[in-house]
Amino acid sequence: MSPQASKKRILLDFFQARDRQRVEVGDLYAARNELRRQRGPGDRTALGYIASILREAGYEVKYEDRYSDPVIPEPYASRLKGVLEFHDLASAEQSLLRLDAIFREYSSAADRLGTTMVRALVKKGKLRARSLAANPRVNTPKRQEKQEIARWFQVWLETPDLFADWLALRKSSDEFRKLFAGGDAAEE
After folding, report:
1. How buried is residue 95: exposed, middle or buried, by Cβ count under 10 Å (0-12/13-18/19+)?
2. Number of domains in the chain
3. Which pTM does this prediction carry?
């Protein structure tokens, strides 16, 4: 393996040599150790990153954390891929409205697995937004925005039927306008 090999290439080669499709947490630690062996002891690759790379390559990975995507079976995975976005308030709002529409479709079809998958994705978004809001390396306005987005996800999880009305009220509140004046989501 050349010293210029990417992390992704190292990981895929490592698991291809193991000739297994099912990956457990211990395997992820072994892969992280392999990355450190090849790239140096300072390599700080997260287990969630390793899990995401392997899932993308078709491995069955038994691991979840706030950074890795939840395991979503087909046909739900194709339908939900790329729907969760929260770069800013506007994308978070659009994402939640799309997820809500999908949730309602699954709910009206009495598809419990579908509704569970949507809820898992919204929960993952909430956890990621909270994590970014708590990260001191993220600038203060962006942290406030991520905190607000995490609140949106939480409200949707608690009361999806009231979310759209709640969001309209929230966006018209003085507090919201003061915090996010000039932001595209603050405009009606």
Report:
1. buried
2. 2
3. 0.69
